[in-house]
Amino acid sequence: MKLGVVLFFVVTYIVNGEVVVLNDANIRNTIDNNKIVFVNFYAEWCRFSQILKPIFVKASENFKDNTNQIVFASVDCDKQPTIAQQYKVNKYPTLKLFRHGQLVKKEYRGQRSVDAFTEFIKKQVESTVKHINENDNLDNVLDSKVRNVVGYFNVPQGDEYDNFQKIASALRDECHFYVGLGEWTRKKNIAGNHIVFRDANGEKEFNGPIAGYQHLLEWANSNCVPLIREITFENAEELTEEGLPFLILFRKVGDKKTEEDFTSVVLKELGDQKGAVNVLMADGKKFAHPLFHLGKKEHDLPVIAIDSFRHIFPFPKYDDIFVPGKLRQFVDDLNSGKLHREFHHGPDVKSTGPPESAFGKLKPSNNRYSLLKDEL
């Protein structure tokens, strides 16, 4: 029995230097049980992958003593196509980071050297949580232009405090995190430790169990990652790397009425679609090229379209967003494959039911005698 366990460990965690080789059997366990996992997705036939491999291994050796904290890992995308597909890897080598089990949306795009990797990972484990004091006026401390999460804890220990720190690490790129500690927080923590979200629209309190990590993560994620974002030339590639189709509103910048109308409809109809589609707004003047492919120009704005990364599908008529369910149906048609199918084969034929029987007309008339003439 012991030998079997040892063999399983050896087969599952074969390492090159200090790099863990990931496969279907160990990837989830590795990602979930370490604070930071830095993954090199590579292909053996790729020359650039071969150049990177010894550099990646050398950098990993600087963190070999950080048990359950930092792991350097690799995925051979030819041997593990399911993993490569899951994380939408289509170029090699690709470097992705996981924090507390959560995939960081942005790929690593820094210099590919031992020193650069080492410095990057060291920064990942540094806490970005800022401390607040009893006399601090949060209106002055917090930047209302960004999204903020504030935790109040009697003592800096326990499951609830640990969960807050994990959330702060996982979402450090999306929100600013603050923590208040000590006796003064008891005035606020009448019902126990508590956490609030603050932005320009006000304050929202987390009402679930702070000891329940998944519930807290979902709440923080829903507040820290907005449902609608602005796409620019600077962030377009990063948004593409998230792997979700784009639902884009092309509008004239400053057209507040259109922005408000679109936002209102999206919040009503697509609130549950954050993991299925990226809802974006774009400057129709700057993004004239995709509009050209839609046969549209600046004077046609506003225009709505879905870009699946294979095709771009126009929403037939902008004003139809005011028809309840119309925008949701557009997204559902993407998810069902209908938009793609109709793009290639034309509109689906409407179902009219089975055609009327032709042979039924040949049956004896109700106004005639039968052959036996026994009706009387």
UniProtKB/TrEMBL annotation:
Positions of the UniProt region annotated as Disordered: 342-365
A single GO BP: protein folding
Record domain Thioredoxin: where: 1-126
Cellular component GO terms, alphabetical: endoplasmic reticulum membrane; endoplasmic reticulum-Golgi intermediate compartment
An MF annotation (GO) of this entry: protein disulfide isomerase activity
Keywords: Signal
PROSITE patterns listed in its UniProt record: THIOREDOXIN_2
Metal-binding listed as a keyword: no
SUPFAM superfamilies, per database record: Thioredoxin-like
InterPro entries assigned to the protein according to its UniProt record, in alphabetical order: ERP44, Thioredoxin-like_sf, Thioredoxin_domain
Domain of life: Eukaryota
Signal peptide, first to last residue: 1-17
Pfam families in alphabetical order: Thioredoxin (PF00085), Thioredoxin_6 (PF13848)
Protein name according to UniProt: Thioredoxin domain-containing protein
Species per Swiss-Prot/TrEMBL record: Bursaphelenchus okinawaensis
Lineage: Eukaryota, Metazoa, Ecdysozoa, Nematoda, Chromadorea
